[in-house]
Amino acid sequence: MRRALTSLFRRLTLSGWRDIATAPCDCTVELAVIDDEQHPLGFPCLRHGDGWFDAATMQPVTVSATHWRYWQPDVLPMSCC
Length: 81
What we know:
Blueprint: H1 2-14, E1 18-19, E2 29-34, E3 38-48, E4 51-54, E5 60-61, E6 67-70
Antiparallel strand pairs: 1-6, 2-3, 2-6, 3-4, 4-5
């Protein structure tokens, strides 16, 4: 069991996931919950004070997140110039 958890955390670290205790405030990030597997929320969130908010709606997000990574949108912004 310990080997499986170590492997899971190593994969998370390599894919950009970081411990929730290090999450920045007022910065768009993606949250993940880890129980037996990784479950990313799939939408951008902001940490403000002691709480998390959906970055698009500013509605509170009630989740016990364990990891975070910088938000990477599916479609990158484009420039015509």
